[in-house]
Amino acid sequence: MSDPIPTEPPNETDKGDPGSEFVSLIVQHRHALYAFIAKQLAHPADAEDVFQKTSVVLWSKMADFDSGGSFFHWACGIAFNEVRNHRRTQARNRLHFDSELSELLAEESMAEEELTLARLQALNRCMEQLSPRQQQIMRRCYDGTSTISEVASKLGRSRDALYKQLARLREKLSDCIRGHIAAEDFVL
User: Fold this and answer.
1) Rounded to whole angstroms, what are the CA distances from 97 to 18, 42, 94, 180?
2) What is the pLDDT of residue 95?
């Protein structure tokens, strides 16, 4: 997927500029929005085209966005209309989704995004419940800057011992996340 928009959020000097804030929202949600579109179309090239058109429409309608609402849901509404428009123009192709299936896929995609966000929030809360030492170990192992062997060496431990501790910590976090999600009535 090529990005029709910048991949980096605007810098600090751009704060307060409505265009920069809007671009930041698009950048933040571009992968989820692309996934939302791709789930409704049979061909990746079609998804790319519709994503590009959706990005242009979002930009042209940025004044219509209510900053108190959910950008992702607003953008999905526009994307859904762009998918319908695309399907209408491609109706002569033999392989296309009917509107009922597309609506179902769109609803599922939005629900998946909400669940993903809920899981990330739960992960943050669960990480806070770990001891500072456990948090440090998780960050060192998963920040992508060091290998497990390097982290183990820095901690003065064997790789196997670190792997076992990571497995216990992942299980603890997984149970904690499930508990938070269940408390929020999400279906896993």
Assistant:
1) 37, 8, 10, 36
2) 58
